[in-house]
Amino acid sequence: MKVENGIRSGHKACICCNGEIKDMDRARQLASGVDLLIAADGGIRYLAGMGLKPDVVIGDMDSVSENQLNEVEETGRITFPRDKDRSDTELAVQWAIEQGAERILLLGAWGGRADHTIGNMALLMRFPGVLELWDEGFLVLALTAGQHLTIHTSAGAHVSMFSFDENLRVKTTGLKYNLNNEHLKYATHGLSNAAVSDACSVAVTRGMIILCTQGGETWLQR
C-alpha cells in the first residue's frame, strides 16, 4: 500500500496508545517492523506485554506507574504537564514527525474512552496519508485531495470509505462498486465495499475521506 502525490513512504514510526489491543501477536508484528517505537503514556503497558521496549515514552505520565518506567529506565522520557491542550497521542505524533517519520501507525488508539477514540479519528484527518490506525485487522486512515492510495490485499477484503465533505470526489479501481470521480451520496454509501482482486486503488480529487481497509499486513508492505 503506497500513498502517492507528495506523500512519501519512508521512515516508519509506531505509537502505542492506552486504548484497547486484543490481538497482541499481530500488534507485536506491526510494532516490530518500525524505525521508531513510541509509548504514548499508558501505552507502555502494551509494549511491555509484547516484550518490546519503546525508544521514548511521551505524555503527562498520569497512566504510567513508576514500576513500569523503571522497567524501561534506559528509555527516553518526555514529560508534559497534566494541564495541556493536546492529547498524549497528538504530542507523540508531532514528536515523531519532528524526528523525520513519514508514516506513523497508531496501536491501541481504539476502544476505551469514547472521546479519546473520536479524538484519534480527528488526528487521522489532521495528518492525511501519514497517520494510520490499526484495530482488529483493519487499517484506518484519511486521504485528502491529490492523494492516491494503492492497496495490496485479497479478493473479498472489505474496503469502506466515509465522506466528510459534500463536494467530495473519488476515483476507485479494483472494487466491487467503483467510483468514477463521484461523490459518496450519504453517510453509509461507501460502507462494506470489497476488493475484487489482490490490488485496488483509491484517489481523492476533491475533499477528504476516511478509508477503512481490511488487512493489517498492508502496512508492512508499504
Structure, described:
The protein has 222 residues and is an alpha/beta fold. It folds into 2 domains: 7-134, Rossmann fold (3-Layer(aba) Sandwich); 137-222, Thiamin pyrophosphokinase, catalytic domain (Rossmann fold), CATH 3.40.50. The chain is built from 6 helices and 15 strands. The protein has helices spanning 24-32, 44-50, 66-71, 88-98, 114-126, 217-221, and strands spanning 2-4, 12-16, 36-40, 56-59, 76-79, 103-107, 131-135, 138-144, 148-152, 158-163, 169-173, 180-182, 193-194, 199-206, 208-214. It has a 10-stranded mixed beta sheet with strand order 5-4-3-2-6-7-8-15-10-13, with helices on both faces. Strand 6 (103-107), helix 5 (114-126) and strand 7 form a beta-alpha-beta unit. It is elongated, with a radius of gyration of 17 Å. The model is unreliable at 1-9 (pLDDT under 50).
Count of individual domains: 2
Separate helix tally: 6
Helix residue percentage: 10-25%
Ranges where pLDDT stays below 50 over 5 or more residues in a row are: 1-9
User: In total, how many beta strands?
Assistant: 15
CATH architecture of the largest domain: 3-Layer(aba) Sandwich
- Average residue pLDDT: 86
Sequence-ordered SSE layout with sheet pairings:
Blueprint lengths: L1 E3 L7 E5 L7 H9 L3 E5 L3 H7 L5 E4 L6 H6 L4 E4 L8 H11 L4 E5 L6 H13 L4 E5 L2 E7 L3 E5 L5 E6 L5 E5 L6 E3 L10 E2 L4 E8 L1 E7 L2 H5 L1
Parallel strand pairs: 2-3, 2-6, 3-4, 4-5, 6-7
Antiparallel strand pairs: 1-9, 7-8, 8-15, 9-14, 10-13, 10-15, 11-12, 11-14
Helix pairs in contact: 1-2
